[in-house]
């Protein structure tokens, strides 16, 4: 088997992280010292926003008043798809109890986190879908308080469509706040008095770095980087559709990788020919982003066999993985590392990003090797519990005592001793040799 790079990326997602790390470190330290005042200062200097941070119902109503009904209907439909899928995910895991041995009952209770912070990016584009992807999923999971944040759009408050999507999805508190300062505010409970237990949602490299650095003080969904797409294509693929889908994701930003993995030299050559022309027809903002992304991060990998294509794809562990090949069931069975899988040319990443139902907040930068995207499960804690009868305790306690003493943990062992003395006085039971040192 052989792999040939017909186009190799000049950069990797790690190429641009050092500057972000130093900037975020300073900002987080400033916010920890200065609290809400520091956050307001950053909102003014970075986003030119001096208005209210916490949006009142009246302010929300005023900001969204002019949205046409057709747009509201589309957002309601898409949010409903996401909510129903998340509800099905929630229903797929349940509380249970099992008497694992006579008198010993163990169980699992699924408890949602109390407060979730949902970050919705607004920069080059107004990410309407990210609002319902995060907020609706959290609410479907049973989260009591959802705090949603998004930056002012062009200095005029949260984009009305994003704001409406947050509201439709069920956000309890909405903050007009973006970037590192938003992540810090949700982590520390600024402006709301409710510290987030988990923060979810996509963002730029500064937002991603803030989440990474604050992880531990707060839970996060995934270690995120720039959006990624890979297309696996054999000789049956339509080069125009493949090229269009690669460009469709490259417009996310200058650092968004787009990869083609193919066994067909003809498909590879035609896709390579088409992509510059497709980028050239885009409007300026998208053309600039997609052009840089394809130039610096785009790759075309030619493989001999479909097994080799699977191996390469699993090494990339791409966020979004499309398969344009014959025998889709084989690919579904054999691929293992991806954020979300799109089988056949009839579906694509844009459908998944906006309206299909599965979440579009997904692992990047190889994290799909060990983690999955945002789901109802991310907001749930499978908490274990146990209880036992005194008869069961008399069975478990001697074993626990002996193992504890083998480990050298005398105080642990004595929690068994005291119970045996109470529940089985006078019993001649081996509790292990007491620890002397």
Share of β-strand residues = 15-25%
Radius of gyration computed on alpha carbons: 26 Å
Q: What structural class is derived from the secondary structure elements? A: alpha/beta
Distance between the termini: 60 Å
What is the overall silhouette? Answer: globular
User: H/E order of the elements?
Assistant: EHHHEEEHEHEHEHEEHEHHEHEHEHEHH
Number of strands: 14
Strand order of the largest sheet: 1-11-10-9-12-13
Query: How many helical stretches?
Result: 15
Helix content: 40-55%
Largest sheet: 6 strands, mixed
Instruction: Kindly report the average pLDDT value.
Output: 95
**Low-pLDDT windows of residues:** none
How are the secondary structure elements laid out?
Blueprint: E1 3-7, H1 17-47, H2 57-64, H3 69-91, E2 96-101, E3 104-112, E4 115-120, H4 128-140, E5 145-150, H5 160-169, E6 173-176, H6 179-188, E7 198-200, H7 205-214, E8 219-220, E9 229-233, H8 239-250, E10 258-262, H9 265-280, H10 284-297, E11 299-303, H11 306-316, E12 320-324, H12 328-334, E13 340-343, H13 349-354, E14 380-388, H14 390-406, H15 410-423
Parallel strand pairs: 4-5, 4-7, 5-6, 7-8, 9-10, 9-12, 10-11, 12-13
Antiparallel strand pairs: 1-11, 2-3, 3-14
Helix pairs in contact: 1-6, 1-7, 3-4, 3-5, 4-5, 6-7, 8-9, 8-10, 9-10, 14-15
């Amino acid at each position: 088997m052989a792999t040939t790079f017909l186009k190799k990326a000049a950069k990797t997602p790690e190429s641009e992280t050092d500057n972000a790390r130093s900037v975020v470190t300073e900002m987080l330290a400033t916010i920890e010292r200065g609290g809400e005042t520091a956050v307001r200062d950053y909102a003014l200097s970075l986003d030119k926003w001096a208005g209210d941070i916490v949006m009142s119902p009246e302010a929300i109503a005023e900001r969204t008043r002019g949205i046409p009904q057709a747009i509201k209907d589309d957002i309601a439909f898409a949010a409903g798809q996401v909510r129903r899928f998340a509800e099905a995910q929630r229903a797929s895991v349940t509380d249970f109890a099992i008497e694992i041995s006579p008198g010993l009952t163990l169980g699992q209770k699924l408890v949602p986190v109390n407060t979730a912070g949902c970050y919705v990016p607004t920069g080059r584009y107004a990410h309407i879908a990210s609002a319902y992807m995060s907020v609706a999923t959290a609410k479907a999971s049973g989260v009591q308080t959802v705090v949603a944040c998004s930056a002012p759009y062009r200095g005029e408050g949260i984009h009305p469509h994003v704001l409406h999507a947050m509201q439709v999805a069920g956000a309890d508190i909405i903050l007009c706040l973006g970037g590192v300062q938003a992540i810090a505010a949700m982590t520390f409970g600024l402006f709301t008095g409710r510290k987030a237990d988990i923060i979810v949602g996509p963002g730029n490299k500064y937002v991603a770095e803030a989440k990474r650095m604050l992880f531990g003080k707060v839970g996060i969904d995934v270690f995120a980087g720039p959006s990624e797409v890979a297309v696996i294509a054999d000789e049956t693929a339509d080069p125009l559709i493949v090229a269009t889908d690669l460009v469709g994701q490259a417009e996310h930003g200058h650092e968004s990788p787009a990869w083609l993995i193919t066994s067909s030299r003809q498909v590879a050559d035609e896709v390579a020919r088409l992509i510059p022309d497709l980028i050239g027809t885009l409007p300026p903002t998208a053309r600039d982003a997609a052009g840089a992304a394809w130039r610096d991060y785009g790759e075309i990998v030619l493989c001999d066999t479909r097994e080799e294509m699977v191996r390469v794809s699993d090494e990339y562990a791409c966020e979004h993985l499309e398969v344009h090949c014959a025998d889709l069931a084989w690919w579904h069975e054999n691929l293992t590392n991806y954020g979300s899988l799109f089988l056949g040319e009839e579906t694509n990443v844009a459908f998944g990003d906006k309206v299909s139902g599965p979440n579009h907040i997904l692992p990047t930068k190889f994290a799909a090797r060990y983690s999955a995207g945002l789901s109802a499960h991310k907001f749930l804690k499978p908490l274990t519990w146990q209880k036992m009868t005194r008869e069961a305790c008399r069975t478990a306690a001697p074993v626990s005592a002996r193992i504890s003493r083998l480990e050298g943990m005398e105080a642990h062992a004595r929690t068994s001793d005291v119970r045996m003395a109470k529940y089985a006085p006078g019993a001649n039971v081996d509790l292990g040799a007491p620890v002397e040192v």
